[in-house]
Amino acid sequence: MTEPSTRVAIVTGAARGIGAAIATRQAADGRAVAVIDLDEQASAKTARAIEEAGGRAIAIGADVSDAAQVEAAVNRTAEELGAPTVLVNNAGVLRDNLLFKMSEDDWDTVLSVHLRGAFLMSRAAQKHMTEAKWGRIVNLSSTSALGNRGQVNYSAAKAGMQGFTKTLAIELGKFGVTANAIAPGFIVTDMTKATAERVGVSFEDFSKGAVAQIPVGRPGQPEDIASTASFLTSAESGFVSGQVIYVAGGPRD
Ligand code: NAP
């Protein structure tokens, strides 16, 4: 099936980092973009940059783990831009700690933003996609899904994203909707900068250590993830569904 003329994408956690790069790339690909993040002012920065580059975007402040805010955000997108048929579940947080020191709050927050957030957003957006008989969902997993010291909550959430994605692919395929996951490796963003700070090393040293393990010999950039998302949300990717693409400068699974 060909892509419908109304092309509207929702990108969550798009105020900065990987989400901002994905939103910008979606706009460059010709989509009107709903930029969702916790703080509407922060979302507005990305939306403004898209408009200044000649694209179309709206900024929405919403917590993806809150069902009412998610419903309102998806409804506003449909009213102001048209039916969203592309969804990128990117919003994320870290609350790293070793298991014996991890609080229930830190467990719940991480599972809630990543997994409950992706569930609520996908449930709200799928009705527009199934009605249009076309849709693309991309979920952000991570190489941490394979296990990572100090991230029992995050790795569980990111492994969960993979099972969630495969089930979406099975349930929604007959409506022309695909679902895939991207599992980034080390990408230069505020999130990896915060990790360096937490473990008490300079970002330069932290980055050097990470790059030493990366076959292509460089750190990932948000644009590396945005270009992968661009393919997975394109019309040409319609026979690719339920996959996890490791974008890590080498094989990580
Ligand atoms: P980032 O720079 O920390 O950006 C994440 C964005 O998500 C922030 O703008 C944050 O808003 C927003 N957010 C957090 N909780 C939210 C909520 N409940 N509702 C809506 N928005 C929320 O992170 P990033 O590095 O770009 O990561 C993006 C995604 O890629 C995440 O899912 C992350 O787990 C994944 N990932 C990243 C890497 C990496 O190396 N960077 C590797 C693998 C996977 P606030 O600023 O207000 O908190």
Automatic annotation (TrEMBL):
GO annotation, biological process: monocarboxylic acid metabolic process
Residue ranges occupied by any Ketoreductase domain in the UniProt entry: 7-185
Keywords for the protein's UniProt record, in alphabetical order: NADP, Oxidoreductase
UniProt keyword NADP, yes or no: yes
Coiled coil, from the record: none
Molecular-function GO term, any one: oxidoreductase activity
One family name in Pfam for this protein: adh_short_C2
Keyword Transferase: no
Lineage top rank: taxon: Bacteria
Official protein name in the record: 3-oxoacyl-[acyl-carrier protein] reductase
Protein family per UniProt: Belongs to the short-chain dehydrogenases/reductases (SDR) family.
Entry-linked SUPFAM superfamilies: NAD(P)-binding Rossmann-fold domains (SSF51735)
